[in-house]
Write a structure and sequence with these properties.
By secondary structure, the protein is of the alpha/beta class. It has 3 domains: 33-236, no CATH class; 339-417 and 507-589, 3-Layer(aba) Sandwich (Rossmann fold), CATH 3.40.50.300; 431-505, no CATH class. It has 23 helices and 14 strands. The protein has helices spanning 3-18, 26-51, 59-76, 81-103, 110-126, 154-176, 179-185, 192-196, 201-227, 237-250, 255-280, 287-301, 307-313, 380-388, 410-414, 433-439, 449-454, 458-475, 490-502, 520-536, 547-551, 571-574, 578-585; strands at 138-139, 145-146, 149-150, 229-230, 340-351, 354-365, 369-373, 395-400, 403-404, 418-420, 508-512, 539-543, 556-561, 564-569. Strands 10-11-12-7-13-14 form a 6-stranded mixed beta sheet, sandwiched between helices. Strand 11 (508-512), helix 20 (520-536) and strand 12 (539-543) form a beta-alpha-beta unit. The protein starts with a helix and ends with a helix.
Length: 589
């Protein structure tokens, strides 16, 4: 274990442990408790908003479910707070499931508006239910007890709160650094590439939504037993806005930034409430105006929050070692060379009155390289999208080994071993090159949320990363494994996409302009790689504009013009076809 990588975290934990022992005013222990409670909610928001790209203003309501569940059970039925803990987080998760199924399907401005709507509804619901004490709330909540010790004071419950904060933060980091976490992080790239490699986009969004709700409910459970009374006030929209502000200020993509942002906002709030009234001569709540201005400034000047600036001050962490594994991922059995794999039959795609693909039919056999060529706008990329399920057919069919693919989702199609690159490269620039490639191997792993959170999937994860490292070496990008993918040049990004597709162990490889941006020598290396794949039995469907590259590589050519198939056959035959000469190759043919 690399102590240098753990040193900043261990230092922070040691600092938290000794604070109550130091001669600090009790007020600051209370503030630290509030920071801890807010940090739990904000960590969930980091995964939901910063990583998953789902903006939520309603997280305070889930705190309410945790707080009210334990308050009712502990006061009315005398149930131990420790027994109400799992029930509180389960209630938060159960409520989040239907809300999440509705919310994650929203996009654009409808998404935050949806969270505001149910956040307000739940807040007013808390104040209308008699069993919850309506707006007066519930008082006399018993304290938490452990081995006869009662957590009555702020100093007593301090360690319990921060135990949960550190545990949740470490678990969240484990989750993000896993197979499941890569799928979640891929949501920020729009999700199209992730879904093409088997990630269930709706499920990934629902995972982070429920996770954020569960940790918010945990915060509510702690809050109820710290305050020993609850009412709807802390669970309204204003607190939801504050939690979102904490996530943005700290750094919406950083788990440890959630704690930093929570601390900064809560301390600033305490200072404003103490000094602002005397400065402006009124007791009106003006801190929300200050927070609004702060949010706008940070979004303008530091969209990634302030935590990245802290990271620059801290000692630079050494790069992660390239993983090794004695285990090998299972490989698919490839079909006999020449046997039909992909069959496109009278495929048609119309966008209103525009026909992008017009009754096109062709086959891609195993162990063959098929070129799909044509002028710009001929319908080549649309054909790719029809085969991989990203676009739906207007009519016609696509088959894989005789099995109909039409109507299947991209992730179901990916299960057959159909992998692709994109005309406009879809990488995740903030993730490392290695992790981008590992995303391609998503379907070759099985570890879920709980294993990832507890970090007991490390053997499988090491095997997946080792496979990704192998594919990077295979395409000549091994030395860039730990660099952010956004640092690569365009040609390297094209090769990175191929490595990601190879990590899926494909039977069919769909390459959309893979040679774009490559130098002559790099094109030759790419051609050699594709020839090797052909020898192994992998089928390749290739879209490319470099005719010199195509003609010396492919076994079969399919030519489109305005969405219509105008010629197909051997390269030597197609280049002499009059329609091809007129539409595409011209006099150079």
């Amino acid at each position: 274990m690399n102590i240098q990588r753990l040193l900043p975290g261990l230092t922070g934990i040691a600092f938290l442990v000794v604070i109550p022992v130091l001669p600090v005013p009790p007020f600051w222990i209370t503030v630290l408790n509030n920071i801890g409670l807010a940090s739990l909610v904000t960590i969930g928001l980091v995964l939901l908003t910063g990583v998953g790209g789902l903006t939520s203003f309603g997280q305070a309501a889930f705190c309410g479910f945790g707080a009210y569940t334990t308050a009712v059970l502990a006061t009315n039925y005398g149930i131990s707070p420790w027994l109400t803990l799992p029930l509180s987080v389960i209630v938060g998760g159960v409520v989040a499931m239907p809300l999440g199924l509705i919310t994650v399907r929203l996009s654009g401005h409808f998404l935050p508006l949806g969270t505001i709507a149910w956040g307000l509804s739940l807040y007013y619901l808390f104040g209308k239910i008699d069993m919850l004490g309506r707006y007066d709330g519930i008082t006399g909540i018993p304290p938490i007890e452990l081995a006869g010790y009662r957590f009555l004071s702020d100093g007593a419950i301090y360690y319990l709160i921060w135990f949960f904060v550190i545990a949740v933060a470490i678990g969240a980091r484990n989750l993000l650094d896993s197979r499941t976490g890569r799928g979640i992080r891929a949501l920020r790239g729009g999700g199209q590439a992730a879904e093409a490699f088997g990630v269930n986009i709706v499920r990934a969004k629902l995972i982070v939504f429920v996770f954020a709700a569960v940790v918010a409910a945990l915060s509510g459970w702690l809050y109820a037993h710290m305050q020993r009374n609850v009412n709807p006030t802390p669970f309204g929209l204003s607190m939801g806005i504050e939690y979102l502000l904490m996530a943005v200020v700290g750094g919406s993509g950083h788990v440890w930034g959630a704690i930093f942002g929570s601390g900064l906002v809560i301390i600033l709030k305490e200072l404003l409430q103490r000094f602002l009234p005397s400065l402006i001569g009124t007791t009106t709540n003006f801190e929300m105006i200050v927070f609004g201005i702060l949010l706008v400034v940070i979004l303008q000047l530091a969209r990634d929050g302030l935590w990245p600036f802290i990271l620059k001050i801290l000692p630079k962490r050494p790069p992660k070692p390239i993983p090794t594994s004695n285990q090998k991922l299972p490989k698919r059995t490839l079909a006999l060379a020449g046997s039909p794999l992909i069959k496109v039959e009278k495929a048609r795609k119309a966008f209103g009155g525009l026909v992008a693909v017009n009754d096109v039919s062709f086959e891609v056999p195993a162990g063959r390289i098929v070129g799909l060529i044509g002028p710009n706008g001929a319908g080549k990329s649309t054909t790719f999208n029809l085969i991989t399920g990203i676009a739906s057919l207007t009519s016609g069919s696509v088959f894989y080994q005789g099995q109909r693919l039409s109507g299947d989702s991209p992730r179901h199609i990916a299960r057959h071993g159909i992998a692709r690159t994109f005309q406009h490269a879809k990488i995740l620039p903030d993730m490392s090159v290695l992790e981008n490639v590992a995303l391609g191997a998503h379907l070759r792993g099985s570890a879920g949320v709980f294993k990832s959170f507890l970090h007991v999937e490390r053997d499988e994860e090491a095997t997946l990363l080792a496979e990704a490292a192998h594919q990077l070496e295979r395409v000549g990008l091994g030395e860039y494994a730990n660099r952010p993918a956004g640092d690569l040049a365009l040609g390297q990004i094209r090769i990175l996409e191929i490595a990601r597709a190879l990590a899926a162990d494909p039977t069919v490889l769909l390459l959309d302009e893979p040679a774009a941006g490559l130098r002559h020598g790099e094109k030759q290396e790419l051609a050699n790689l594709l020839k090797k794949l052909r020898e192994e039995g992998v089928a390749v469907l290739l879209v490319e504009h470099d005719m010199g590259f195509v003609m010396g590589l492919v076994d079969h050519l399919v030519v489109l013009d305005f969405g219509t198939l105008i010629a197909e056959g051997k390269p030597a035959e197609v280049r002499k076809h009059p329609a091809v000469i007129a539409a595409y190759l011209g006099g150079a043919a």
